[in-house]
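Hypothesis: this fold can be encoded by more than one sequence.
Test: take the structure tokens below, design a sequence, compare later.
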């Protein structure tokens, strides 16, 4: 009589063990899937940073820039789009001579003062797993980098 009870009991133990194993495998699968998504997202942010630096460096190497903008896609990375805009950034005239600056130095500052700088805004955007991502960087350039025509219409 003891044998019949133990046979059914072993089957029940096996079913419970398989159920626990199956539930733990589902949890493990979700963890691995999430880890792969985070790794891909991290790679995308790193790639976006380098692509941003590429655009900024290309514009920095230009002797002068006019107010302009451009949008496009990177040939080697078709998931990544870019948009950049180079604008005039107004700088207010300093009011009053700073302490510690002589009158001659202040006069030279006002004489050389341009009133504007070049401002570059770069945005990189992409999709991963149907979710949109984007990053934007802004930087300023010295006034001599911004070419402004004196031509009047």
């Amino acid at each position: 009589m003891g044998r019949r009870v133990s046979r059914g009991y072993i089957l029940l133990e096996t079913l419970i063990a398989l159920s626990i194993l199956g539930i733990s495998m589902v949890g493990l699968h979700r963890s691995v899937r999430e880890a792969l998504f985070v790794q891909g997202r991290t790679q995308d942010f790193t790639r976006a940073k380098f692509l941003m630096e590429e655009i900024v460096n290309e514009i920095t190497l230009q002797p002068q820039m006019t107010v302009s903008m451009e949008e496009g896609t990177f040939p080697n990375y078709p998931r990544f789009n870019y948009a950049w805009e180079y604008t005039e950034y107004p700088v207010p005239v300093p009011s009053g001579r700073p302490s510690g600056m002589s009158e001659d130095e202040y006069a030279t500052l006002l004489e050389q003062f341009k009133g504007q700088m070049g401002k570059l805004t770069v945005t990189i955007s992409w999709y991963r797993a149907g979710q949109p991502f984007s990053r934007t960087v802004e930087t300023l350039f010295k006034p001599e980098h911004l070419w402004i025509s004196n031509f009047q219409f």
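Residues 2-60 form the longest helix (59 residues). The chain is about 45% helix and 30% strand.
Hypothesis status: open.
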